[in-house]
Amino acid sequence: MVVHVNGEAVELSEAVTLTQLLEQLGITTGHVAVELNLEIIPFEKHSECILAEGDKLEVVTLVGGG
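-> structure tokens emitted (66 positions)
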């Protein structure tokens, strides 16, 4: 199965939740915003949201610095 994250194709061996995908991508912070097929998914729903073939995601994390 292929999903697109920030314009890049990501191959998945099986259906996963949004939380599982973020973990696979090494994104473990709670400071992340995810848009799935043009809809913002609240953080509380990440573990319930199962991805499907062709889904398009935009993932943005908070970066601090100064």
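The chain has one domain: 2-61.
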